[in-house]
Amino acid sequence: MRRTAVSVAALVAMTGLPAPAHAATEALASRPFFQLPFACGTKVFTNSAGSHAGYVDKALDMYPNTGNPYSGGYSADGWEVRPAVGGTVRYLSGSTTNTMYVEHNSTWRTMYAHMKNRVKNGSKVTRSTVIGRIGSVGTGKPHLHYEQQQKVNGTWQLVKPYFNGKNRSLGSGGRQVLTSHSCTHPKPTVWCRYRAEKAVNKRSWAGTKYESEGKLTKGTVYVFGYNGYRKPGSTVWRRLKSSGGADGQGPFVSGNHLEYLGGGTSCPT
Questions:
Q1: DSSP reduced 3-state for 9
Q2: Which residues of 55-73 are buried (b: 16+ CB within 10 A; e: fewer)?
């Protein structure tokens, strides 16, 4: 969006985006486990422009696969967009910016604007569904305008954006580069006991740009599942039998630092 500071009323008139309401409180315990709306491992430049006057800490403009879209020679046009969480697509009637929502439940939804090639209104989508492609509908520079909204006392209100369980809000002119953790892998069906040989990281997923979810305690016995996931270099990753991980099925730990103690026939490799 343009970087000229304007009032909220002027923004609505220029862009066709709905006027934002602001939540005084947030029931964080009920918040879905949102991920960036792009494929697993995608690097995403995000900023909050001056045109987000009045809600700069709650709206993000997104440019995937770039370190700085203002350096020239880059366009996000046509990049696939996926929902932050699965749900039902709802178009904003009469929008001049192709604004649409994905309703995740009765109290949470996410908003996506400026896209082209959108899926049909009313579509049921999962986090792996391509719901559209980045475009410039109603704006000058191709990008995705994104918001998270919560229904409070019957009214949809903007809240600060969270991804992979962490607050990623910005102020006016703020910029950050994030990596999408919208990653899913099969849940293990065989579970085995291992002792941690060192205080190794628990990863939200097994990629190189991951979010740490703390460390295992050296010498402690844990239960892990094996689902055959490998990285280049033949590293085997196991799923800790617990909550967490980018897909909620447990964080990944490198099998190089685990001592097998038994409990199954398919875990050791």
A1: helix
A2: bbbbbbbbbbebeebeeee
Q: Which residues pair with 163 in a beta bridge?
A: 166
User: What pLDDT digit, counting tens, does each position of 160-217 carry?
Assistant: 999 999 999 998 888 999 999 999 888 888 899 999 999 999 999 988 889 999 999 9
Closest CA to 21 of 55, 61, 72, 67: 55
CB 65, CB 74: distance < 8 Å: no
pTM score, two decimals? 0.85
